[in-house]
Structures
1.
Amino acid sequence: MKSVNQEAIEHDPQQLHEDLHTIWGNPKGLRSLTIVNHTTLGLRFMVTGMVFFLIGGILAMLVRTQLAMPDQNFMSPDIYNQVTTMHGTVMMFLFAIPMLEGLAIYLIPKMIGARDLVCPRLTSLGYFCYLFGGIILTSSLIIEMAPSSGWFMYTPLSSKEFAPDLGSDFWLLGITFVEISAVSAGVELVVSILRTRTQGMALHKMPLFAWYILAMALMIVVGFPPLILGSVLLELERAVGMPFFQIAGGGDPLLWQHLFWLFGHPEVYIIFLPAAGIVSTLIPVFAGRPIVGYGWVVAAIAIMGFISFGLWVHHMFTVGIPQLAQAFFSAASMLVAVPTAIQVFVWLATLWLGKPKMKLPMLWVMGFLIIFVCGGLTGVMLALVPFNWQVHDTHFVVAHMHYVLVGGMFFPLIAGLYYWLPLFSGRMPSENLGRWGFWLTFLGFNGTFLIMHWTGLLGMPRRVYTYEAGSGWEIYNLLSSVSSFVLSAGIAMVLLDIALHFRFGKPAKHNPWNADTLEWANTMPPSAYNFVSLPTVETRHPLWDDPNLPHTMAKGMHGLAVASHGRREMWGTDSITGKVREIIHLPGNSWWPLFAAAALAVVCISLLTRVYALAGIFVVIAGVFLLRWSWENGAHPNAAPDAGVKPGDPPLHSRTMDGPGLWAMAVFLIANGSFFLSYLFGWFYLWTVSPEWQMPDIPPLSLLIMGIAGGAVLAGCAVIEKLVRGLRQQRDAGLRASFYLAAALGALQVGLAGWALWRADLSPTQTTHDAVMLVGLVYALFHGGLAVILTVLQGMRVGYGYVGAHAPFEPAVVALLWRYNVVTFWLLVGALAILPRMIGG
């Protein structure tokens, strides 16, 4: 029997709109800080990123002013170093990645036919971590304590000996804080793309933009943890004296370069891929035909993402690595041009076979094609080791980097912003102001950075604050600096156009560009819930094949057109076929992400000021906030106590064994595994390469105690696996006792590992060996303790009736952590306790 309210809604689409708005709508005033809606948070990411972009742009103008003439004293050497370091840092970490992630957060659910991202509170936490981390980092400029060792923070320049002030600490702690945001967004986007596409949208029918974002998000998940590890190690060295990068103690400063570029080179493609996704979205629309070679583009995306992780030594050709390694990484650096060329040829073929309309967004796309191809050609030049040796650390490298990153990211970004502006605001941009902005930006950019190739070839080093008259660089630097102000004028024109259009822009008709993807089936500006009903999609071009689709969706003629239960719902679909598997019910607005991010910000500030007791207190407070947040889940009264669904609809995800939280945990553990493997890489790298590495004659870790601890965690995992198998068979007898037994075994593992650490009597401030061993054991203790806490909470939730045969989902999530702990703990035992006994130092 259908309720009276439900029948009324089915006959009254307006009532359905109003009820959905009641459920999904954003609060006003102070409570707007609790918003978890992806549309609002995506806009917040982008607006905040644009503010940081303006800060980074001002810093760039200061640099060009200083270099415009020889022997200038516009800035002192120390201030100049701070400004150049912060320019690169802000643009790479506070603008490029967050801006593109913000655009993806805004667009992806709309493109794949979902109402929101799958973990909306995680998105909110990521935004506040980004905001607070960016504020902490940029505040160092105001107090003239900004980092001054370059945006790459090479050791030993960034170590305590050569950078004794807090500048490096601001960078290390601020960037680590910001990267929590990046990884959170990466996890969110991966799971949302794989598990929340609308019914029928199989992987081979997914918009290309979603493919690009999926690759970007996976690369973030794998690529950012090595830098997080490096930042943690360097901060430990600076704060307490653990000699990870000091040769005298057994460390090696080159370890920092390896960890940094394990992140840094994939980041180039992390920035490029979403921008290329914008190009692959816009060209078919303005060419009036489907893209040529969809499958080739998808293959190129996957190949590029894979190869990018094998190129990090491309940045280290001059550090003294063996010639065989130089040859390998040189070949790999040139090989990555192949998938890039595939995409360029696909774009050109689509334009050639279509009837292109040179609207404003396409003007920026054409500028991108010209600039990025030039940047790619200089990239192939730099992949040649002899040429790289000649121009390494000159302005040629700076020019190449800007051609690839600015040309490859900024121009497509502006094209995308102009393209989606009507969706944001319901108004069209100004063609006249937009064209003025483009030409000033295009000419100013090339005037600035094309000339820098010449100064680099003439031998001008990067990171010098001035130069002598008569060097032959004067006229080129002056022209470059003048052009940089033309570039700034062009960007100012673009920003002015965007700001004015919200008030004076011409109202846009529905789907003004005649686009093919689902985001244009939305209202303009979009509602908080995106779609009244969720369609079945059988084609890559749903709006071209069914122009009436937006109207039937708005009338509630498709899936999940019900709001009487008061839940935020969307489809959960198969990751490959797009077949509906469950109904995902999402959490609503919450203070917990803000509270947790604020507590972590206090931790960051306390570490900066060396108030370690306060930092420890707020680590605990942040943990309490996060655990309290996790409590409102599954069958909790604030989540979904009522599991009822319409006849014929699939079950709620919390009543299954394969909800999105399981996928989110799996992707988080991939990121965690990247961190752990980077740690093992550091251990074996120092063991085999560092000239002063000291391996004790008698290994300090007790193999017996560590082996018993490993047996305890294995036994605890076996208990968890048994109860999860029982839940799959709808059996929950003795569930609570099993959780407490597993927690006791986990506590035994933590206690034994802690005892082994105590007995080892390490000297982590004296030798790198002991410092690295301490970090590994603390890592194991943290994860073991986390598993114990989560397992105890599961036992408590059984008592409250939130977990059981009726709601079996959460134990499967916890089981993944136990499996991870078993694998990583035994790898640690092998690396730290068994191998040293087998092969010695």
Note: The chain is about 65% helix and 0% strand.
2.
Amino acid sequence: MKVVIVGGVAGGASAAARILRLDEYAQIIMIERSGYVSYANCGLPYYVGGVIKEQEELTLQTPESFWDRFRIDVRVRQEVTAINPAEKTVTVRTLDSGKIYTETYDKLLLAPGAKPTVPALSGVSSERVFTLRTVEDTLRIKHFVEDQKPKTAVLAGGGFIGLEMAENLVEMGVSVTIVQRPKQLLAPLDTDMASFVHVEMRRHGVALRLGETVTGFRQDGDSVLTLLEESEPLRSDMVLLAIGVTPDTHLAKEAGLELGIRGSIAVNERMETSVPDIYAVGDAVEVTHFVTGQKALILLAGPANKQGRIAADNICGGNSHFTGSQGSSVLKLFGLTAASTGINEKAAQAAGIAYDKVVLFPASHAAYYPGARSMAMKVLYEKESLRLLGAQIVGGEGVDKRIDVLATAIRAKMKALELTELDLSYAPPYSSAKDPVNMAGFMIEDLESGKVRQFHWNDVEDLPCDGSATLLDVRTEGEYRRGHLNGFRNIPLDDLREHLDELERDKPIYVNCQTGLRSYLACRLLTQYGFSCAHLSGGYSFYQVVTQEQQTARSAYPCGMEKL
């Protein structure tokens, strides 16, 4: 069996090695347009920043090591320019010499990945405007940074690569400005959770120009001007385009393969395309979202590697299936870790799913053990079925551990209430006896059993401030004096029982505290004394971060932020 693989990074390289493990006699030719195979896209910003010291550490395999270990014929700096499914051939051009030849195949695997989205704007060809997708891109940026020693940089885009590059450039002493049309960074996060990322970026000197549209670039001596639609141009020493990637599917389209959303390659669960004996994997293909069941593009290394393995199984006569991706991801940003899995609120609304959510601020490990840090944690679940839909966590240590537990729970199709039953490891340096994941389950259990009701940060400005409801802040007097929600009366939780006769039983009570714990306790107390009560999810600190970030925290709002 002769297998030709187009593309030699995550999906292609994974498939190649798997095929040889299943069929020692298979002839495999892997054709890669760049000069490198089996490299770590996610590590590229860290090489630019010097965290990864040696260029060789970026590549897991080389053409030589592929041949020595697997006898796989890897051809770099060669490009497949056409596919002829009827004759089962591909046309190949050698980039260095221009030589064109034809290669036959029994099975063809397409793993072309995605290419950086480069808008049709003036000035994008400037030598000071960069994209980052391949090792060659990385080396170009690395050489520029070392030779030119830029002091300023503009990054167009606030996704994973853009933010990782921002961090690395800042650590090198470069002043960074991020410009993008969306009004938040990191699309997998909800706006409220992204606020913590914004705060961290600004804390490290990164200027955020969100909601701005780039219209072009213009070189001006040793600088480049980033032209904006409604603002003055930004002058910098370099620009990085990181506004996203586009599936590289022109070969599939020209060969008559069925395409999916946004021009991606349509495949079934076996990673087969619409043409017999042609498979496709990785960033170029559409997948089924595990949570919504809808078609999606999820451009991550984990799914690409799994798809490569599945395609290899089926090429070798097996019957493996890719059951979908839920987009689990994690990102380091200075002292912060941001992670998500499943869907966010925007995606749930688009899919027409009736959902609810809990927000909590658990400690990374036992609070009495030194070094504990709180994390912002948000869990979504479907109201009717109680199935888990997604989770987002932003914080320090322990974020990756909890997001992986929740990702596993979603994959296992656990109900939200089953989070309470997870038997997770505990020792003071690592967790608490009731792990944050357990705590999320307890909170959902209380909501669904009717033990507590909640309202959210975006409900605050609509609270009745005309005296028809009681607005109650149960933090300490000192906390209240440092800042509070306008219209909220302060009765500390520990004193609440002694002041019950001051509260009107025929009025609903809306309770607020710092992070949502004391307000929950207050509501349980008040409910048992016959009051109708709801508490602020995430508390005052969550409201404060989100509203300040969105510049909506104005005392002019009826129940907005009042700063003392």
Note: The chain has four domains: 2-113+246-315, 129-243, 335-448, 454-555.
3.
Amino acid sequence: MRPDQHARTMLPIPDRPAPGLTTYDAKDPDTSYPPIEPLLPPEGAPNVLVILLDDVGFGASSAFGGPCRTPTAERLAAGGLRFNRFHTTALCAPTRQALLTGRNHHSVGMGSITETATSAPGNSSVRPNTKAPLAMTLKLNGYSTAQFGKCHEVPVWQTSPLGPFDAWPSGGGGFETFYGFIGGENNQWDPALYDGTTPVEPPATPEEGYHLTEDLTDRAVGWVRQQKALMPDRPFFVYFAPGATHAPHHVPKEWADRYAGQFDDGWDVQRERTFARQQELGVVPAEAELTVRNPQIPAWDEMPDDLKPVLVREMEVYAGFLEHTDHHVGRLVDALDDLGILDDTLIYYIIGDNGASAEGTLNGAFNEMANFNGMAALETPEFLRSKVDEFGSPSSYNHYAVGWAWAMDTPFQWTKQVASHWGGTRNGTIVHWPERITQGDGLRSHFTHVIDVAPTILEAAGLPEPTSVNGVQQSPMEGTSMLYAFDDAQSPERHDLQYFEMFANRGIYFKGWSAVTKHRTPWLLVGGEVPAFDDDVWELYDGRTDFSQAHDLAAEQPERLAGLQRLWLIEATKYGVLPMDDRTGERLDPASAGRPTLVHGTSQQFFAGMGRLSESSVVSIKNRSFSVTAEVEVPAAGVEGVIIAQGGRFGGWSLYAKEGRAKFVYNVLGIQEFVVTADHAVPAGTHQVRMEFAYDGGGLAKGGDVTLYYDGEVAGAGRVGATQPMIFSADETTDVGYESGTPVTSDYTTRGSRFTGRIGWVQIDLGTDDHDHFIDPDERLRIAMARQ
């Protein structure tokens, strides 16, 4: 192996041509130049595949004793290592930014998810340029880089089709190829996709068998094959983050049906079965204890008998979803094996970016957006029973009950969002690299954290941490390479200090001990009483003998607890955790959160063909009066289709034409649909179609009166009984002249619904009477500019 000739701490590596003789004539025999050599990593650098699943608890996968069959995970574990004390941050975007940078999530501005970012540095969602992502470092060292799946690291005011793209994977993220979605979750049957930074539609429909995980796998397999066909000497870094098994739990029915009857005994019994299997596998020590159920989580026997078939089906669907996901991960692993490169590929299979999600309410949800709007009560037990056969299908946007999330985090307390307890942060992780790990089926119980992945990959590739990237001096990575643990199960752990915090749920790990305090309940997303920070009750656990945090020693060792509390405060100050912010749903409003917005003022104009506009890219019409005015040209044969639509099947609104007549629909969570129809068709020619919504006021989510106008003359009127106060959708968008994703109105059943006339412009105004029901075409630009 020849020594590496590059100084790689400054990236890009400076071009430094060697001085020498320059001849006048290239034919001169003294003319000599060294051959051009493409930049490659040091010899022996492996391919790298990082697989990150979403919202999978420690006790879900069969590889760690859970009830959901994951044969690919078991296969990789049999030839590699299982880490049973690997930790994440308790929430998705923070874990992902920490993974991709090797820094603590507050250090890179991701104290929580991007949708709740504030102006505080630790919660801004803006990654400092002093903390370059791993993919950029690898790319500038000669790796081919690609990401497939979920990207939840883009600040929400940068998520429009115009960027800026500094935080996008293929913009400033270091990935040469990106195919996936921007945001926290997506409809698995009908996702909003990007190829690089270009919005694209899925290649097929749900009726044609489309599913997002399969599509992402197809793209990843195709990319790896092409990369090895064209660049066999260049290693790759592939980040495969499918977005499964985050809600909505969407999976073909046959996969869910494989688990029929398996969960009939409920979540309490399931925890006991999982715990026994975990001890049998050895992923949980024999002396560990199963933690008790918190009183805030109902026992299975406390649930109504007539609701239990729904609850059982929720878990069957989730289990099928996880097995389906693992199956497609297996297709990607098989592709590496077929290419003969599996042994020389360092694979991280991280089974979850946090604990299992308890955001689905105590009963579960047919449309999880109901809970995000504080309207879960609309999904009555009767409603859920009526939908039991549709869970997991394209007509659902479903989630399981809190009790199942708790069971999927066996043997620990609590769930996703609760960064204090291991149920929120401990995720089973498998490392497979036969070229280095020669004895497979090993167990590693070193304390490790997601920030350790990036420095591990750099050490495995023989690459130093850069001190400068793109002319910016870099701060050191905060993780610790795990490579030492690959070789020796008995080696002392090197990552022995780690803070945790999420919505003021907080904890500290230090040399086996943990001090923790749970502050906020994860399924209470809007409202709810929380204690003052200083009133939080801290607990103390000795992880050297208490694997599951089952025995609180706070009363017995108050001095040790006080020392760890002080240490938490020191670490929190060091990494930008302060000020703590325990608001959740309230931070969805950018004004109160203090983050930028893409749109200012009370008016916004759109033009035909504009689309895939995220909710943060459009002026908010929630909880207030508003109007929508469109200049349309109607052919003699009449007009059909969408003028403008925001949201989709599971919540939103649309102004459109049906059988020639203008219609307005307000869809509340896919449960209630309020439709107002004009009395007659829009005449042929160029006209203004206007909708005015007069909000009732008196609080959030109220209804209002709707009036339709043609050229300022009343054409129809009606009533909207209720509205959504917080969010329409996590993935559906606003489109002009067509509708991407699922349709808002039941008048249309598939995506598309293109307007058959011509749209000159569309304008949303907050308030309903600014133009006497008509906008002078010559004045509309002046009016809009005056409102900015």
Note: Residues 782-788 have pLDDT under 50 and may be disordered.
